[in-house]
Amino acid sequence: MPLDFTSAVHYHLGQFPPGAPNYARLMQGLLDATAALARYDQMLRGLHNSELFVTPLRGQEAVVSSRMEGTISTLDEVLLLEAEFGPGGDERALRELRSDAVETALYRRAMNTAQAMMQEGRPLSESLLKSMHRQLLSFGRGAGKSPGAYKHEQNYVGERGSGQVSFVPVAPEHLPGGMQALFRLMDDEAMPVLLRTALAHAEFEALHPFEDGNGRLGRMLITLMLWRGRAIAEPHFYISRYLEDHKDEYVRRLRNVSAQGDWDGWCAFFLEAVARQAEANLAAAQGIRDLYEEMKPRFADVLASKHAVAALDYLFANPVFSNSRFIRNAGIPGQTAARFSRVLLQQGLLETVREPAGQRPAIYRFEPLMRKVRV
């Protein structure tokens, strides 16, 4: 099918980085976004184990960010896949599964791996970016799209299968210089981290440096930049829901950067997105925390064991789980863990996703939590 460039916007060659932001226009949005993000971050800092409460939100982010690129999966599917094959996953087995669910699981894996690498002291660099991309496209539909390598041919953005090109990213011969300029801006601590992140996200999407996976990787970079810039204590801020809900404006604002040089309009939209999503994330995390506090005495009552909190913690971190892994990994004596599963099933706190069969263990779902976090 021939490509139609009639209404295409072309990359803004030679116009990055832009001049100084219009602080008079952006200051109120910057203050609002900073305050909302701080409230969310403060709530997480006050939790005894924030990972318990944000693991489901990270699952939501993987589902929604992948859905924005046309990858349709559910949180139940992704968590079932991880329950069955573990966080690392057996690649030979995963290749047999529905590709959309696998792609979403790879998003979660790439984000978790990047977090671990940065915690070990690895900088947010082009090398780390390529490593994330390699994992994101390690197999499935993206495996043939040069995982871990920048594009060598011109790519285009448009509606899949229509032939209509809406945006022409930077040409491959200009990409090395473009990436160097991008990372110089990302490292410029003289600029407020939220504005730096806004500009970097727009520029990354305009460069579109890889053959595939740019949208998902660009949204991961938002979280990693805010974390590295100390706007959040841990990399637990997820923005894709707001961007999906306002996708038309999101795309239009990004296009206007190249079409009209409207960096300030993009930054204003981005700051609004951060503020509103921080409020939504705060409410979601508080809801998960409230459920945890509600379940704590109930687990203590029905399980009648000093290990009741350990069981509860495991279920919040793994709301869909293999019974064999629960028995092995929850930090509870094996016979006690097996009894817990039976009691929680009888009490209606667990639901059976898959009955045990031969060598395959039962898989259960902690439905009270899943009802709160499905997207």
Number-wise, the strands total: 6
Mean pLDDT figure: 90
Number of helices: 16
Percentage of β-strand residues:
under 5%
Helix-strand makeup class: mainly alpha
Rough outline: globular
Strand order of the largest sheet: 1-3-2
The biggest beta sheet is recorded as: 3 strands, mixed
Uncertain ranges: none
> What Rg, in angstroms, do the CA atoms define?
22 Å
Quaternary organisation: single chain
Order of SSEs = EHHHHHHEEHHHHHHHEHHEEH
Helix share, percent = 55-70%
- Compute the separation of the termini in Å: 35 Å
Relevant terms:
mainly alpha, 3-stranded mixed beta sheet, 5% strand
Q: How would you describe this structure to a colleague?
A:
By secondary structure, the chain is mainly alpha-helical. Helix content is 61%, strand content 5%. Strands 1-3-2 form a 3-stranded mixed β-sheet. The active site is at 208. One of its GO terms (molecular function) is ATP binding. Pfam families: Fic, Fic_N.
Provide a concise account of the structure shown.
This protein is mainly alpha-helical. The chain contains 16 helices and 6 strands. Strand 5 and strand 6 form a beta hairpin.
Element layout with pairings:
Blueprint (H helix, E strand, L loop, with lengths): L8 E2 L12 H23 L4 H18 L7 H11 L5 H4 L4 H21 L6 H11 L20 E2 L6 E4 L6 H12 L6 H15 L6 H15 L11 H6 L1 H14 L2 H41 L4 H10 L2 E3 H7 L4 H13 L4 E4 L8 E3 L1 H7 L2
Parallel strand pairs: 1-3
Antiparallel strand pairs: 2-3, 4-6, 5-6
